[in-house]
Amino acid sequence: MLRIHFTAEDFTRVRFAPRPSPVPELHAALLMLGAPHEELLFGRWRGRLLRALPAAAEPLADLVPGGVAPYFLDVLGETREEGLELIRSARPEFVRSELERVYATGRAPVPPWIRDLHAGSAEAWRVLERAQRAAYETVLAPVWPLVQDLHRAEFTRHALTVAERGLGGALETLSPGLREDTWEWPDAAPRDVHLAGRGLVLLPTFHWRGGPLVQDLPDRPVVLAYPAGGGLPLAPPAASGEDALAGVLGRTRAELLRALTSPCTTTELARRLGVSNATASAHAGALRAAGLLTTTRTGRSVHHATTALGALLTPQ
Q1: DSSP one-letter code for 55
Q2: Which terminal residue of the chain, N or C, has fewer Cβ atoms less than 10 Å from its own Cβ?
Q3: 192, β-bridge pairs
Q4: What is the pTM of this model?
Q5: What is the DSSP secondary-structure string of 107-169?
Q6: Domains present along the chain, CATH in parentheses
Q7: Which residues lie across from 304 on neighbouring strands?
Q8: Measured CA distances, 207 to 7, 43, 157, 191, 304 (Å)
């Protein structure tokens, strides 16, 4: 469980990030690329992006041996350039200690360019910047306008909640665990974060689907990046003749959702899709596991129907 400890001063220093921050959003997306969960919804997204990532982005994997990232990457910045500059301006001793921390187990060999980064090599910093830019252009740039739209909607929702219910009510909508001077997130990894007067920045992320991500660096406000959005991978606007939903779910599953204009049996679904009963049943099971349809049995009959989320994805 994540526990965030407030002082009285901290409650006056809670703010919602007014705009999305490109570097944390990029890092959240890269984390999601390596995450094993939600394979149905994110599997095709992962496969597409991993195939598209250029070789210039490959050094980023060297920064997270065993899935542990150095803290000097934890920056905000309202633009990509500002975020990259904040990374580059990290204190040399901080960079060295963090690289030593993530490679401390000795299980992963240290690549030469990481050794050079540890030594403060200007060329190693250029390798890192090229990798960040290459990853951004492939992963985030195509969907950045959508991230901005989603952030505006989330910011508006939060502002209205604060106006109607106060700060405590707004925090409770994110995680109902506010206890006097402590805010708890039960589904997060065990950790205690003491704000100690630094304040808290709430930053929605629209790629990461796990628990909250915390940036807790000395002399800086603590940043809580929490998963927001609709729970589906972001996709760029579909070009003419393309189907964005099929790109996420696969053509047959997208067609199956659209075919459920009203509850129907597996046999009816198979007939509408032109597939076997077994194939229709398998795809329906996958969509049911993702919360996009429900299945009910009455006697010998089985009927499938879209959930509210499934209906939102396939407006008639």
Answers
A1: G
A2: C
A3: 3
A4: 0.77
A5: -S---HHHHHHHTT-HHHHHHHHHHHHHHIIIIIGGGHHHHHHHHHHHHHHHHHHHHHHHHHH
A6: 2-227 (no CATH), 244-313 (1.10.10.10)
A7: 264, 295
A8: 31, 13, 19, 22, 29
